[in-house]
Amino acid sequence: VQVVESGGGLVEPASSLRLSCAASGFTVDVFAIGWFRQAPGKEREGIGCIKTTGATLYPDSVKGRFTISTDSAKNTITLQMNSLRPQDSAVYYCAALKRDADPCYYDGYVAYWGQGTQVTVSS
What are residue 46's DSSP bridge partners? Predict the structure, then answer.
C-alpha cells in the first residue's frame, strides 16, 4: 500500500494550487484519505479528509478554501487549494486512514503516510 503526493510548488498569495495523492495497492473507495501539513517549527495539522462515503470534513483554518475530491478512474485524491496565504506554506502529506470517525483528519488514524510535497506561498 502506498500513497504519493504531487503538485506542490511556489505560488503567490491569493492564488490556487492543486495537489494530487495517487494510491497504489488499494482503491480509494476502500480507505478514507486524510490531508495533513507541517510547517517548520510547528506541529503537524490535519486539514481535511474524505471518507469512503464521499463525505468531507475540514477544520476552520481551511474551510471554504480547500476542497478534497476523489477521481476513482485515476485512483487519486485531489486537494484543491484556493485563496492561498503565506501561512499555508508547509509540507503537505496525504495518508490512508484506518479509521474515519470525526474528525477523520486525525493523525492517530493514519495507516500509511505519503512522502510529502512542499507548498510555499510567497510574493
Answer: 36
